[in-house]
């Protein structure tokens, strides 16, 4: 959905998130955690700036300090190397979802990833990173080892992180307004910002909300449905253990991926769908050849409070999620249903045909407002 106050474009899928797995049960084998079961992908080991440079674009790294002293890293794409750097380009801030990072918007590569498509169209592209992910793990006073560092949810991302990044972009570009596009949690934080700091409505030309999350009573994620029921007990236990960050270690993730995805393991058919445990099941848009690169960048880290905050919404919501959101937002310009029956939550950023099914429509709407 795109609305203008911003104008928001709210994009939602038509799919039912159905999920079917056919499982054979061969003899269980020992798992070798040292082998690379997915095949080597250089992109899995490159950071955001290295990926931008590899695919022929001009990139920059910027540090932003929030009002409560978190230090956030932003990545900027000023265009492809093949073209001169035009002046007076309109800026757009892209914001990732839960457990993700700025890499979401570039991992699919040129002509596929939204950030590159925007840069090719002449936009000044800024990629945000929320506090606590792999690029934004610094604070002027606190360490990531301090409990207080992790005492935040997506509410603080909306109250502190987004305003700091938006103001930084405006100060550095001399612009008065920018575009904003976000996936999942990035939309939640935006709605928090605009409701708690209404002056930021005047700083946004138009906002594109991909798989917006405000009401999630109908979310199909098994992880969040279980979390909603067990949240108080889990939160108490994690606090007692001093676990405030959701960031599985590299060794643990490698072991988990090997255990589930070993070619001879009975659970192998579930492998590709493991990352859908949080986002919800079902899609034919997952690019299996891209999966090794994706798994090199998720989970990117978050506070455990971000999960528990969403679980509270699940327990308190009994309305149709996107429809009620669209009814409550002012200045809605478009509510776009992705014309693909099984288009899922993660397809908005990694879908094989996301560029054709969705991104081109977003570009058309942005170009329309750029000309006004």
Automatic annotation (TrEMBL):
Matches recorded under InterPro entries: AB_hydrolase_lipase, Lipase_euk
Taxonomy, superkingdom: Eukaryota
Keyword terms, alphabetized: Glycoprotein, Hydrolase, Lipid degradation, Lipid metabolism, Signal
Source organism of the structure: Cotesia typhae
Keyword Signal in annotation: yes
Family: Belongs to the AB hydrolase superfamily. Lipase family.
GO molecular function: hydrolase activity
Signal peptide interval: 1-18
A Pfam family reported for this protein in Swiss-Prot or TrEMBL: Abhydro_lipase
Protein name in UniProt: Lipase
GO biological process: lipid catabolic process
Entry keyword Phosphoprotein: no
Domain Partial AB-hydrolase lipase: 49-108
